[in-house]
Design goal:
alpha+beta; single chain
């Protein structure tokens, strides 16, 4: 079995997995970072969203061999002003219900605020499109993103 070095949350991990193993399973099963969730397995629900070199991507359909030297950031490692503002707003607005989709929702919201400091409704819709919340907390998610933007001065 081949070995891959994967940089996750600023730390190099050597994993013994097949080249086509999805990054999601490397994160969860090989590295032990279980904050990133499996939802659909076909990159449609957003529960598995991580950052690859700062861009939000779905880890369930990305083979570990495609990661290369990229820097992977998971919900356990996301940090910075935007991440802190989103996490505070999520708690204040009681966004999570079951919580299953929330790591992917938070990662997408952080990416949005890093790109667009003061997003409008359309910006939020486009950035969060495909992040499915089975508990339907979309109204609170939108409000929390706007609260986080206000906190950041947007």
């Amino acid at each position: 079995m081949p070995k891959f070095d994967v940089k996750v949350n600023s730390r190099i991990h050597t994993v013994d997995v097949d080249a086509d193993t999805p990054l999601l399973w490397v994160l969860r099963d090989s590295i032990g970072l279980t904050g990133t969730k499996f939802g659909c397995g076909v990159a449609q629900c957003g529960a598995c969203t991580v950052f690859i070199d700062g861009r939000p991507l779905r880890s369930c359909s990305l083979p570990v061999s495609a990661v290369g030297n990229a820097d992977v950031t998971t919900i356990e490692g996301v940090s910075g002003r935007e991440a802190e503002a989103v996490q505070r707003a999520w708690a204040t607005r009681d966004v999570p219900q079951c919580g299953y989709c929330q790591s992917g929702q938070v990662m997408s919201a952080v990416a949005l605020l890093r790109r667009i400091p003061k997003p409008g409704d359309r910006d939020i819709d486009l950035a969060m499109n495909g992040n499915i919340c089975r508990c339907a907390t979309y109204v609170r998610i939108r409000a929390a993103i706007k609260d986080a933007a206000t906190t950041l001065g947007g």
